[in-house]
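User: Some background: our group keeps a shared notebook of sequences we're curious about, and every so often someone picks one and asks for a predicted structure to add to the entry. Today it's my turn. The entry only has the sequence so far, pasted here. Could you supply the structure so I can complete it?
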Amino acid sequence: MKKTLVTLVLAVAAISSSYAQGWVLFNDTTTTKISTNSVTTATAGTATQLTFAAGASTSYYYALFSSTSTQLIGGVTNAVIGANGTYAFNDGNWYFNNPGFGPDYGTNTLTAGRFNTTVADPANSQGTQVTSGASQSFVVIGWSSNIGNTVAALMNWYNTAGHLGIDGWVGESSTSAFMTPGTGGVNPVPGLFGAGGGLIQGFTLGAVIAPEPSTIALAGLGGLSLLLFRRRK
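Assistant: Of course. Here's the predicted structure to add to the notebook entry:
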């Protein structure tokens, strides 16, 4: 009897986990390309060129985040450029989609402004596995490869004062409307970008210039001087 109950419990768990899986197409399209702005651009949000094609001096990575509870990141749904605004990795409501067989990152293709995922689903060519089949909102973060090739490296760079002395590009798409991932067959896998997708537009990666070490040192001395002045008063 116990064996039968254990078997039933495992079967139910397996069925539940299969329903919890969903799939989306995590690639941009010919009409939703990714751009960058240049270091010398006066207006931070102005795109000056498409991301470089593979083989250029700088390449880019992209990460897919989702949330089943909100469409907002830092209280807004709009895109983020450079060091201004809140990124999904700094918002506890958002989850980095990292399937058991490895992280799903996107990287450059031979066409400027385009990216494809780096990890293909070994069992289903329908797209990228996401956290659940439940309705959820999606957002994509892109950054230059000189920062690192993982979300952890990006977070370390972005959240560290002085950005580790590394100039880089980073940006976040607008968030999508709530979408239900597909399972294939009668429930087709939705594309996140382009017509019918939750992310209708491409987005821009903004330049973040790391301050010179001398600037950081001067800022530290200034803060220390203020503390000493307050103590004397």
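Suggested note for the entry: Residues 2-19, 215-221 have pLDDT under 50 and may be disordered. The helical segments are 2-19, 151-159, 213-232.
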